[in-house]
Amino acid sequence: MTHSDTPQLTLKRFFPYRLANLQAAVSGAVGRLYTGRFNLTHQEWRVLATLSEYPELSAKDIATHTNLEKMQVSRAIARMTERGLLLQHPAAHDRRYLRLQLTEKGLQTYRDIVPLVLEREAYLLDALSAEEQQLLDGLLDKLLERTHQLAEQDKLKE
Amino acid sequence: MTHSDTPQLTLKRFFPYRLANLQAAVSGAVGRLYTGRFNLTHQEWRVLATLSEYPELSAKDIATHTNLEKMQVSRAIARMTERGLLLQHPAAHDRRYLRLQLTEKGLQTYRDIVPLVLEREAYLLDALSAEEQQLLDGLLDKLLERTHQLAEQDKLKE
DNA sequence: TCAAATTTGTTTCACTTGAAACTATAAGCC
DNA sequence: GGCTTATAGTTTCAAGTGAAACAAATTTGA
After folding, report:
1. Span A20-38, pLDDT tens digits
2. Which residues 33-62 in chain A have a CB closer than 7 A to strand D?
3. What is the CATH number of the domain that holds B101?
4. Same domain, A51 and A79
5. CB contact under 8 A, A147 and B17
6. Binary contact (B29, A154; C-beta < 8 A)
7. If pLDDT is split at 50, 70 and 90, which confidence band does A158 have?
8. Which residues from chain A sit within 8 angstroms of residue B140, using beta carbons?
9. For residue A89, what are the domain limits?
10. pLDDT band with cut points at 50, 70 and 90 for residue A154
11. Would you say residue B3 has pLDDT above 60?
């Protein structure tokens, strides 16, 4: 290694940068499917997908499931309710909780979108062999685990 | 496969969702290094890194190199100039162009940050074996290529 | 039992952001 | 040359965002 005061950093090879670019591109590619025709934001799509999978969650639960802030969920819910995609009822056992329920229109929207995004996901992953896909899956998990460790470390140092 | 009207989608296993979560976590982990102590935004960091690598680029060039919009670059440049991190001179041959140049303070800031982010990148990637790292690199490239194809397709359909 | 603390969800306020309009300069074309 | 078009960068304006304050309901713990 030659002598140098500053370690080398090449932005184009910097992993966080590469990951950010890929994510933005993937997010855009999938987002184009539901922002235009279905007029859903990214967050609304997540709420829709989560409620389809787990009916009658509360806003809090959705925040947990979707990695969104409770505020973003609150706003997504408000817009979706306004547009007739879901209904809110205060829960009987604890009136702080909202029981959220997709309307038929909400469910239909979900059913319309799912094939589109799955097809696009499949197209993306088709760039990889089955083995590579499985490997990628594991790599993402390992990396995510590390970010949790870093978050822990930083929290302690605060 | 059992019969079902709607193909299955499990948000937690949905690749774009997983990628978005990982990216947010990685971006956060690295961002914490320069947002707090150095008071740089994500975009300012990219501009700083790019100018360190390629001195005297124009704003347009930086936008290209960093995957930022020209507007974001314009704003980053304005803030960084104000804070004494860089200088702008109109280019002699074409006065529309800005010749951007890091000041000593800008360079020093860069030199201070580089070891921190490189260390963090290394820590993240240490979750993977050398082979896995190389593989990941290739996978990201292949996937990125696919997103370009999708962008092309969508552009034509517009 | 009832005051303090906690939890769920909303709202406010200041800041950031993106799209489009705009300014200034240069290039193309007759 | 002079008119149109294109390009670099900035500004404006409306919409989106996050942090923190807030309201309402519930739990805790003397």
Report:
1. 999 999 999 999 999 988 9
2. 41-43
3. 1.10.10.10
4. yes
5. no
6. yes
7. low
8. 18-19, 22
9. 35-120
10. confident
11. no
Q: Which nucleotides of C are covered by protein (CB under 7 A)?
A: 7-12, 17-20, 24-27
In tens, the pLDDT along A57-68 reads 999 999 999 999
- List the beta bridge partners of residue B102: B86
CA distance B60 to chain A (A): 17
Same domain as A134, residue A82: no
Kind and range of the H or E element at B41? none
One domain, residues A86 and A147: no
pLDDT, one tens digit per residue, over B68-110 is: 999 999 999 999 999 999 999 998 889 999 999 999 999 999 9
The protein residue nearest nucleotide C7, judged by CA to C1', is A96
B139 in a structural domain: no
Cross-chain residue pair B49–A11, CB shorter than 8 Å: yes
Contact predicate B146/A123, CB 8 Å: yes
Q: Measured from the CB, is A75 under 7 Å from any atom of strand D?
A: yes
Q: How many other C-beta atoms are found inside a 10 Å radius of the C-beta of residue B129?
A: 11
Helices (H), ranges, chain B: 15-35, 42-53, 59-66, 70-82, 104-125, 130-157
* A147 and A112 in a common domain: no
How far is Cα B50 from Cα B62, in angstroms, rounded to an integer?
Answer: 7
Inter-chain CB proximity A147 and B26 less than 8 Å: yes
| Residue B91: strand, helix, or coil | coil
**At residue B134, what is the residue type?**
Q
